[in-house]
Structure formats: C-alpha cells, structure tokens
Amino acid sequence: MGEVGGLLREWRTRRRLSQLALAHEAEISPRHLSFLETGRSAPSREMVLRLAEHLDVPLRDRDQLLLAAGYAPVYPRRALDSPELSRVRAAVRLVLRAHEPWPAVAVDRRWRLVDGNAAVPVLTAGAAPHLLRPPVNALRLTLHPDGLAPRVLNLGQWRAHLLARLRRQAQLTADPDLTALLDELRGYPGGTDPEPVEPGPGDVVVPLRLRHGDGELTLLSTVSTFGTPLDVTVEELSIETFLPGDDATAAALRAATPGGAPLRRPDPGSASGHRP
Q1: Cα–Cα distance between 233 and 230 in angstroms, integer?
Q2: Do residues 238 and 222 touch, judged by C-beta distance below 8 A?
Q3: In a domain, 102, yes or no
Q4: Mean predicted lDDT score pLDDT of the chain
Q5: pLDDT at 127 exceeding the cut of 70
Q6: Closest C-alpha among 88, 135, 134, 102 to residue 240
Q7: Where is the segment annotated Disordered (predicted)?
Q8: Is residue 257 very low, low, confident or very high in pLDDT (cuts 50, 70, 90)?
Q9: Considering its fold, how many domains does the chain have in total?
Q10: Same domain (yes/no): 10, 123
C-alpha cells in the first residue's frame, strides 16, 4: 500500500499543495492523509477517488492509483473507433463541420490528429508529405522546419506559446511521451525555449500569423473539450479551432475552403485508433 501513498504524495507535490491544504479540501484529517502517504494506513477505494478528484488527477492516472491501492480500474479506455464511442465521433465531426470554413482539428492527449475539417489544408499547404502521413502530430507539423514553420510570420511568438503550453501539460500529467515531444520540439531551429513575447498595446491573445499566397492569415485559436468525460479516451480529446482575426482572413478562408478535402485521418488501428 506504500506505492499508492507515494503516488498520492507525488500528485500533491505536483499540484503544489501542502498536506494541510489537501486534507482540508478533501475533508479528512492531516494525520490521516499523512498515514495514507507513508503507507501506515490503507486507503479505501472511495478515498483514492476522493483524493484524486481534489488533486485533479487525469482519469488515466486515477486508474493507476486504484491499481496501486489494490483495486480494479473504474474508467474505461475504449478505442475511438469502437461502437461505444460512435456518438462521440459523431459529435466531434459535427463540431468540426460547424466551424467550416474556419480550420478545426481534433487531437488526442499526445497531440496526434484524430480528425480535421475541410478547411485544414489551408493551414497545411506546403508541408512535407512525411509530416502529413498518419499518425500526424499537430505540434510537430506546426514547428518542424519542413512543416508550417517557414510560413509562420510570428514564429518566435507562436513557438513560445506552443512550447509553454506543452511544458505545462507535461508537468501536470507527468506523461513521459509529452516530455519527449517537448525535448524534440526544443531541438528544432530556434534554440531552446524562446523568451516570452511582451504583449503590445491592444494585444489580448497570441495570434497565428500565417503566410497565404501573397497575403497573410491572422488566426485566433480556441480549444474545446468534453465537459463531463467518464472515459479516458474522451477526456483526452480536444478540438482546436482557428478563427479569423480580421475580415481579410475571413474572406481568404471562405474562398479557399470550397472543394477542399480534410487532412487524411489515421486508419482504424493506427496510433489514434488503438486502445490507449
């Protein structure tokens, strides 16, 4: 039982909570929490789930806590192409299509492309074929010198934003694959983590400024997730939409999208279709 105690302590430390603060939030005594973390007391199944909830532990890792405490996992990990997730797939497609002609993609927890709408080729034009072969990693595609990077007019600013976002995600989840991806992206031309760019007068968000033909697209990114997931795969899905930041960008996207084809999705059984 000491294994689960050590894991709970790691998650508490990662969330920068003291034993007193976590005990107060979970409505247990600090002494009891101390006994759980040191292995002097064995947590019940309900206690493991209660502490995981207050520590905001991802569903995938809540199952690991349960296993470490000697209990069976409770959160399913269905493949995205399974019959049980057909409504989820339909909902994702509905959201992606609803955003056309604005580009939108669905990615999994490791930034692998799950789906994309008909406007995505506007973003990926000119990228090397090897970066577009499934499984496509959205961050690698964006920052790779053979990907979108040569077209990103504010590459330093956008790269700083993406690396900071990935770094926070790796720290929050302790996922070694995300850490490896972060190390890879840091090794691309441009050095290690760039300095954060100071916002200018009137700036409210970091735009993606992308060369498009003889002009420029100014895109604002938004991210959507399922609000009440009970499945590991569903919790780890996110949809990123690139909205036009000005009238010229909106007109260019409307002109470019008709007849476009969505970025080719992985076949069932490939990296994003396997059982996590």
Answers
A1: 9
A2: no
A3: yes
A4: 89
A5: yes
A6: 102
A7: 255-276
A8: confident
A9: 2
A10: no
111 and 17 within one domain: no
Residue 60 lies inside a defined structural domain of this protein: yes
At residue 174, the pLDDT reads 85
Q: Do 137 and 181 touch, CB atoms closer than 8 A? A: yes
Q: Are residues 201 and 135 in the same domain?
A: yes
In the chain, the DSSP E strands lie at: 104-107, 113-116, 208-212, 215-224, 238-244
C-alpha angle with apex 207: 237 to 130, nearest 5 degrees?
55
On whether both 242 and 120 belong to a single domain, the answer is yes
- CA distance between the termini of the chain: 26
How much is the pTM? 0.82
134 and 235 co-located in one domain: yes
C-beta atoms surrounding 13 within 10 Å: 10
- Domain membership of residue 184 (yes or no) is yes
Confidence band, pLDDT 50/70/90 cuts, at residue 261: very low
> Between 30-38 and 2-14, two packed helices, what is the crossing angle to 10 degrees?
120
pLDDT value, residue 254: 94
Task: Please answer whether residues 92 and 106 qualify as being in contact, where contact means their C-beta atoms are separated by less than 8 angstroms.
Answer: yes
Tokens representing 200 are 């200018």
SS3 238: strand
The SS3 of residue 125 is coil
Domain residues for the domain of 131 are 83-256
